Amino acid sequence: MARKITTTVTGRVLDVEHAGTSVNGNPSYYITIDGPDAGTYRTSSDAACGYSATNYAPRWDKYRTVTLQLTRAGRVSCIIAAADNMRD
To answer: What's this model's pTM, rounded to 2 decimal places?
Structure first.
């Protein structure tokens, strides 16, 4: 039996941008985070987390810290945890 290796990254969400839609019409987003795992990650094609990605976009009064689970290809397969933090 093959082991499934998963990678997670955690950071504060700086931006969420629409990346287009799949051939099935499901949305995909780029999620930019900072912190030790800083970078821009794209949600997987036809993944359910594509519908909730905009919920984690920064707002004027707070930002969100998230933990993203990545596929072997480096795409976001799900958003595991999120916490609200007030801006300074």
So the answer is: 0.85
Domain assignments of the chain as residue spans, ordered by start: 7-86
Convert the pLDDT of each residue in 34-45 to its tens digit. 988 899 999 998
State phi, psi for 34 to the nearest 5 degrees: -115, 180
Range list of H helices, 6-68: 49-52
Tell me how far apart the alpha carbons of residues 71 and 68 are, in angstroms, rounded to a whole number. Answer: 10
User: 7-86 — its CATH code?
Assistant: 2.40.50
Residue found under tokens 């397969």? 77
> Are residues 64 and 82 in contact, defined by beta-carbon separation less than 8 angstroms?
yes
Is the separation of the CB atoms in 16 and 57 below 8 Å? Answer: yes
Q: How far is CA 7 from CA 18, 19, 27, 47, in A?
A: 23, 22, 22, 17
